Amino acid sequence: MKIISWFQIPAVDLDRAVRFYGTVLNATFHRMEDAACKHAFFAMDTLETLRTGGELYQSTQGKPSSDGTLVYFTAPDGIPGRTYDIAPDSQRFLMIKESAALYGFV
Q1: What is the C-alpha to C-alpha distance for residues 39 and 42, in angstroms, rounded to an integer?
Q2: What single DSSP character describes residue 14?
Q3: Domain limits of the chain?
């Protein structure tokens, strides 16, 4: 089982990010656009493949920065109702556990 199940990398220029990651990682992408965001999904065969799924996205909701990339971990035995920062002295609240429908929880 994969520990990291999904990631999101924000981009200011999605075309440029796709060219960069496509070249560096020899990756292919599936593109999609909605009213709020442009997406470029790293190609995956199925949810069970060895490749971890993820996306590049261009939106006003995210920007490249030290706190811009989101990484989603697999937790088959469940997680607490809240997720906390890993620094033992901070225990900073990050987000409330929310349903992602058939994909589980985030």
Answers
A1: 10
A2: H
A3: 4-103
